[in-house]
Amino acid sequence: MTGRLNEMIIIPDGDYRVGSNSFYPEEAPVRSIHLETFAIDVAPVTNAEFARFVKETGYLTVSEQPPDPLVYPDLPADERIPESAVFIPPAPSVDRREPMAWWALVAGADWKHPQGPASGIENCMNHPVVHVAYDDALAYANWIGKRLPTADEWEVAARGGLVDQDYAWGSEMTPGGRWQANVWQGPFPWINEQTDGWYWTSPVGSYPANGYGLVDVCGNVWEWTCTLFPVPDGEQERRMIKGGSFLCAENYCHRFRPAALMGQTVDTATCHMGFRCAADSDGSVEEAISHH
Question: How far is CA 64 from CA 71, 100, 108, 230, in A?
Answer without folding.
Answer: 16, 22, 7, 28
